[in-house]
Amino acid sequence: MKLKNLPWIPFVFFAIPIGLYPLAYFLVDMNKNGLLQGKPADIKNNPVWHILFYLHISFGGLALLTGWSQFSKKLRSRYLNAHRWIGKIYIIVVLISSCAGMYIALFASGGSICVMGFGILALLWFYTIIKAYMSIRRLEIAEHQKWMIINYALTFAAVTLRIWLPMMQSAMHMDFILAYRIVSWLCWVPNLVVAALIINKNKTKLVRASDQEQIYEVSKTS
Known about the structure:
By secondary structure, the chain is an all-alpha fold. Helices cover 75% and strands 0% of the residues. It has one domain. It contains twelve helices and no strands.
């Protein structure tokens, strides 16, 4: 699913450290930092919220770590079976993380603006991975590639959130809640715009006959 001229190195550069970032929540006390900042004690002590929060960040991190590799034509052509297995893992972790995200979005700091921003993000993340899965099951390769680009743009919201939020607080001297309200939308809406531009610019390159033949041959054995 890699587009020839797409600069994936910056994506990988950010995806790996942010994908590993959830480990910090298991290794150190993050109650005064990160996504737990400002959360009331009754929410953090809620066992359902607590479990779903850790499911969301853990599987979301795995989505970041595994998703970028699916766009590499070289990896796909050399290790097609691995591509398919990584794809299955990616679909599962996105489904789990997005469902958990829908719930924890209801308790987002910043009120209804953040609830809507993060809630819609989680819904779209869930919807687009379902579309990507259904299209590959029907061997609609170009459609699958399109939905995967859109879905990973939403996955990448975890990165853009962590770029915008500290920038607004340190460089723009914004209050955390105000910055968080803006970022609840800014972390993913521009990503979708970029994804749409990429798809439109490269729509004739999204799928090649060789890719279709390879995936079709593998699909017959699955």
